[in-house]
């Protein structure tokens, strides 16, 4: 048993040292099997490990006020400086060996298409996409980006239960309808999928109220990215729940047969047509008061 515990502890330590992050397809295409992350000069240094733990590249990450600056180094290969100015959607790439540079913008239309055809971006597109995928894989694209972009505090990711969408008539019997205010969730992230996931969380957070945990309806995510599916800003629009008291005809006035609301002095029986005080409506009939009427389920 002691030997087994030692082996298991060693395995846990090995996984912790290697980071145990999932490696995305773009990184795997370039021979990356695992990552490790260390502090470096008020930034982070991500070591890209290949088969057998051999280092196949390094990605230095530094965050400025409104941008991330990356330096990608591949032994015997690319040596690139990549700056992602996320507040304006600009991606700037420079070959540190040749001095060539190019820019791309997170904008629809001909401007974005023309930038994507730049010779430098075409030559190093695989490395650039790998760099942004690495940011997403190890979570470095989430460091302070939300706070600087949204100018408001988020306390954490919402639960997966918030992803369920409701039909507008699902709450018909409860008086809760999917007709509340609109909320616009926004996000910026290294990948399109991560961006849309964060924007959905943001919309759900804003929709959350006393009736629904998150939005009862969500539109599809719209995103613009500086290069393919990378360096993105996006938004998701959701609708919140609201409560609408049921519309019912006024109850008939009691009387007539002596067995109604005032009959016999026996008090209210909470039947339709009985007359009750607001306190009796809540305490005795377990209903709720709206206007001049008591509604009992």
Describe the structure.
- With 297 residues, the protein is α+β, with helices and mostly antiparallel strands.
- 26% of the residues lie in helices and 29% in strands.
- It has 8 helices and 15 strands.
- The strands form 4 sheets. Strands 1-2-3-4-5-6-7 form a 7-stranded antiparallel sheet.
- The longest helix has 17 residues, at 2-18.
- It is elongated and about 90 Å long.
Question: What's the helix and strand layout?
Answer:
Blueprint: H1 2-18, H2 25-29, E1 34-40, E2 43-49, E3 55-63, E4 68-73, E5 79-85, E6 90-95, E7 101-105, H3 110-116, H4 119-123, H5 125-138, H6 145-150, E8 176-177, E9 182-191, H7 192-207, E10 217-218, E11 222-227, E12 230-239, E13 242-243, H8 278-283, E14 288-290, E15 293-295
What is shown here, in short?
By secondary structure, the chain is an alpha+beta fold. The protein has eight helices and 15 strands.
Number of strands: 15
What is the ordering of alpha helices and beta strands?
HHEEEEEEEHHHHEEHEEEEHEE
Q: What's the total helix number?
A: 8
Mean pLDDT value: 75
Task: Identify the overall geometry.
Answer: elongated
């Amino acid at each position: 048993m002691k030997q087994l515990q030692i082996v298991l502890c060693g395995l846990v330590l090995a996984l912790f040292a290697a980071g145990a992050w999932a490696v995305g397809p773009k990184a795997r295409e370039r021979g990356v099997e695992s990552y490790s992350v260390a502090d470096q000069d008020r930034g982070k240094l991500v070591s890209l490990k290949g088969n057998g733990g051999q280092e196949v590249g390094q990605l230095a990450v530094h965050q400025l006020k409104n941008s991330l600056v990356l330096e990608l180094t591949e032994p015997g290969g690319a040596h690139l400086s990549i700056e992602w100015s996320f507040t304006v959607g600009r991606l700037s790439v420079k070959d540190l060996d040749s001095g060539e540079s190019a820019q791309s913008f997170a904008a629809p239309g001909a401007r974005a298409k023309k930038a994507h055809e730049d010779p430098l971006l075409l030559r190093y597109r695989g490395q650039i996409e790998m760099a942004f995928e690495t940011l997403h894989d190890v979570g470095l694209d989430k460091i302070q980006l939300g706070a600087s972009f949204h100018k408001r505090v988020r306390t954490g990711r919402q639960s997966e239960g918030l992803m369920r969408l409701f039909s507008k008539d699902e709450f018909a019997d409860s008086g809760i309808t999917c007709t509340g205010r609109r909320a616009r969730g926004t996000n910026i992230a290294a990948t399109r999928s991560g961006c849309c996931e964060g924007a959905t969380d943001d919309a759900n957070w804003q929709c959350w109220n006393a009736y629904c945990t998150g939005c009862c309806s969500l539109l599809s995510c719209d995103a613009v990215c500086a290069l393919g599916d990378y360096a993105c800003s996006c938004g998701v629009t959701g609708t919140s729940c609201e409560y609408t008291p049921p519309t019912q005809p006024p109850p008939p006035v009691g009387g007539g047969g002596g067995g109604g609301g005032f009959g016999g002095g026996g008090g209210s029986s909470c039947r339709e047509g009985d007359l009750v005080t607001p306190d009796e409506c809540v305490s005795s009939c377990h209903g709720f008061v709206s206007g001049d009427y008591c509604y009992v389920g």
